[in-house]
């Protein structure tokens, strides 16, 4: 059972995060963006600060905090304009760690969770393939039982944390005759023979997030690498999607708030036609609309986060939240960049990064088109 974060707990973690992020990330962020990757040591630094996987049980080295605390860490990074780091953090702390905590055996938790909390192990989730994104039934990566082992073959694409990953949760077909219901999840050590990583994929945004192709060639896995039951991978994926989409929404809302704040500051300083551009009615009305839209999405996000802590967040509510917040984020980034004029189109001004980082939000974690279909099904059933 999840539990809500109390005010003191949330305040403590937010204050810790702000100090650590300002000290350890802000001075180096532009360099990391240019390199299109954070240094591996950042994970250890965040672990030492107690900021990784805060809702992991104290038994495995975590703080035993609420899931809302983990979401708050994503918010703080996104607000700063560190979209790539926020995404990588979310995969590690808000997706991989909960998969293990909720579905792993005691042995699996003891093996991996303490190292994820410390930053000695970076986690990734490998579901997407060249021919299978939102369509899980298109997965071709397969695992075949061979005595006491599984033999894994296939490839995955667009894997966040793929370069730095030490542990990858891999979705693979274990019963080809059952389609998606023949999918299983495996805990794959990234150092296993036959596991290869491509060079990082270059993207138009979220540059500091390392994204890779992964290849599995006769990777032999012990029987205890299976996460959950055989052929229950699809069920686990569906069970965990609401939390994944909550994390993406946290990023969307907080990044929008960050973009608005730097825009408000800019329009009060920049002058055109003899007055500050914040004095023009168009600017004032546009920012009023942006602020209103953010507040509406913030309220829905917090309602859904509270529902999640009570195990009451449904898949269609999570889909509505992701759809609304991510589409909003793209509109906000666009509207705010417009008020910067030509300067907004330069990398010198952070608003350009808010703009490019936002674009992927309506695609990963389930595209906006898929979200609309899920909500429609909750109303009308399948077409």
Concise structural overview:
The chain is of the alpha+beta class and 383 residues long. It has 11 helices and 10 strands. The strands form 3 sheets. A 4-stranded mixed sheet has the order 1-4-5-8, with helices on one face. The chain has a 4-stranded antiparallel sheet with strand order 2-3-7-6, with helices on one face.
Question: What are the SSEs and their pairings?
Answer:
Elements (H helix, E strand, L loop, with lengths): L6 H18 L4 H7 L5 H8 L18 H13 L3 H21 L2 H13 L4 E4 L15 E5 L2 E12 L6 E7 L9 E7 L5 E3 L13 E12 L3 E2 L5 H35 L3 E2 L2 E2 L4 H29 L5 H25 L11 H8 L9 H13 L3
Parallel strand pairs: 1-4
Antiparallel strand pairs: 2-3, 3-7, 4-5, 5-8, 6-7, 9-10
Here the CATH topology of the largest domain equals Butyryl-CoA Dehydrogenase, subunit A, domain 3
Residue share in helix: 40-55%
Shape: globular
Arithmetic mean pLDDT: 95
Distance from first to last alpha carbon: 35 Å
CATH-assigned homologous superfamily of the largest domain: Butyryl-CoA Dehydrogenase, subunit A, domain 3
Count of DSSP H/I helices: 11
Percent in strands: 5-15%
Query: What structural class do helix, strand and pairing data support?
Result: alpha+beta
CATH class of the largest domain: Mainly Alpha
Q: What is the CATH architecture assignment of the largest domain?
A: Up-down Bundle
Order the strands across the largest sheet as they lie in space. Answer: 1-4-5-8
What's the β-strand tally?
10
Low-confidence runs: none
Helix-strand sequence: HHHHHHEEEEEEEEHEEHHHH
- Sheet with the most strands? 4 strands, mixed
């Amino acid at each position: 059972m999840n539990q809500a974060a109390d005010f003191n707990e949330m305040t403590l973690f937010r204050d810790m995060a702000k100090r650590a992020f300002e000290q350890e990330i802000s001075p180096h962020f532009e360099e990391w963006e240019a390199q299109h990757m954070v240094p591996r040591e950042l994970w250890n630094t965040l672990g030492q600060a107690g900021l990784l996987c805060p809702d992991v049980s104290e038994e495995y080295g975590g703080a035993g905090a609420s899931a809302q605390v983990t979401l708050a860490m994503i918010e703080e990074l996104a607000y700063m304009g560190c979209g790539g780091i926020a995404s990588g953090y979310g995969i590690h702390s808000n997706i991989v760690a909960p998969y293990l905590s909720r579905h792993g055996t005691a042995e699996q938790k003891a093996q991996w969770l303490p190292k994820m909390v410390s930053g000695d192990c970076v986690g990734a989730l490998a579901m997407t393939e060249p021919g299978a994104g939102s369509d899980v039934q298109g997965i071709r990566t397969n695992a075949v039982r061979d005595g006491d082992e599984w033999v894994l073959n296939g490839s995955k694409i667009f894997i966040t944390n793929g370069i730095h990953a030490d542990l990858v949760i891999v979705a693979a077909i274990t019963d080809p005759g059952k389609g998606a219901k023949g999918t299983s999840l495996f805990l794959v050590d990234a150092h296993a023979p036959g596991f290869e990583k491509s060079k990082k994929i270059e993207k138009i945004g979220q540059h500091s997030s390392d994204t890779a192709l992964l290849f599995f060639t006769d990777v032999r896995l012990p029987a205890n690498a299976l996460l959950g039951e055989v052929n229950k991978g699809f069920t686990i994926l569906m069970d965990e999607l609401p939390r994944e989409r909550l994390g993406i929404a946290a990023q969307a809302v907080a990044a929008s708030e960050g973009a608005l704040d730097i825009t408000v500051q800019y329009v009060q300083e920049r002058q055109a036609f003899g007055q500050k551009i914040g004095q023009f009615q168009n600017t004032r009305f546009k920012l009023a609309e942006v602020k209103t839209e953010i507040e509406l999405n913030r309220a829905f996000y917090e309602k859904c986060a509270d529902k999640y802590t009570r195990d009451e967040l449904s898949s269609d509510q999570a889909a509505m939240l992701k759809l609304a917040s991510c589409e909003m984020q793209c509109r906000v980034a666009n509207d705010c960049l417009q008020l910067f004029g030509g300067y907004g189109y330069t990398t010198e001004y952070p608003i350009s990064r808010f703009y490019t980082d936002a674009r992927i939000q309506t695609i990963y974690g389930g595209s906006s088109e898929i979200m609309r279909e899920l909500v429609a099904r909750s109303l009308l059933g399948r077409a």
